[in-house]
Amino acid sequence: MLLTLPDILNTEELHQARQALDDAPWTDGRESAGTQAREVKNNQQLPHDSEAAQAIRALVLRGLDRSPRFFSAVLPLKVFTPRVNRYRGDSNAYGNHIDNAVRVLQGGQRVRTDVSCTVFLNDPADYDGGELVVTDTYGEHRIKLPAGHAVIYPGTSLHQVSPVTRGERLACFFWVQSLVRSDEHRRLLFDLDMNLLALRQRHGETPETTALTGTYHNLLRLWSDT
Ligand code: NI
């Protein structure tokens, strides 16, 4: 399931994020790429322990915490440390690849990359190109969102960032291990949850919404691993 989540960061938070990037210590993005990805990755990123990365990570995680849609769609169990990246000049693209299935946190804990998330940190008018192109069973999606908006897509998808030919593209991205490993299962749970929400808004609580909420939780119990 590919889903956009508007307004994960507000104007003030975007301002803070971009202030944090003044004089930030950008490094070559290839440092954290797997063998295949290294061949096609050509961008810049911030070291995990840099002040700028820490500040932006905190803003992004707080923003996602406020989003019930993010929670419902992703059902997060573990989050891999969000990274901040930049595409511009000679470091302007990331060719087609599939992300490594498992990432290791600094403490040694493993995170299976079920869901990928990108939060756009600057405006699409600031740059040409730089679309996130995700290929799945329904074809190719070209994603370029306003600053502060996010997109989530399954970690199993082939994807790339097309070359930035003017200006710079700033984003924060990370992976989540979901309670529910299967994208199909997550999709069913998300649809059920969203429609239950709409039913409640229209009719209030009814015996049917109560029963279907039970069904939601019983499916979650069936499909989740903790
Ligand atoms: Ni990737």
Explain this structure.
The chain has 226 residues and is α+β, with helices and mostly antiparallel strands. It has 2 domains: 3-178, q2cbj1_9rhob like domain (Jelly Rolls, Sandwich), CATH 2.60.120.620; 183-223. The chain contains 6 helices and 17 strands. The chain has helices spanning 11-20, 35-40, 51-65, 68-74, 183-203, 207-223, and strands spanning 3-5, 27-28, 41-42, 44-45, 76-79, 83-87, 93-97, 102-104, 110-112, 115-120, 127-129, 132-136, 139-143, 150-154, 158-161, 164-167, 169-178. Strands 1, 2, 4, 5, 6, 10, 14 and 17 form an 8-stranded antiparallel β-sheet that branches. Strands 3-7-15-12-13 form a 5-stranded antiparallel β-sheet. A hairpin with a 5-residue loop joins strand 8 (102-104) and strand 9. Helix 1 (11-20) packs antiparallel against helix 3, helix 4 (68-74) runs antiparallel to helix 5 (183-203) and helix 5 packs antiparallel against helix 6 (207-223). The two termini are 21 Å apart. Nickel (II) ion is lined by residues 97, 99, 159.
Tag the structure with descriptive keywords:
about 230 residues; alpha+beta; Jelly Rolls; 2 domains; 8-stranded antiparallel β-sheet; 5-stranded antiparallel β-sheet; 17 strands; binds nickel (II) ion
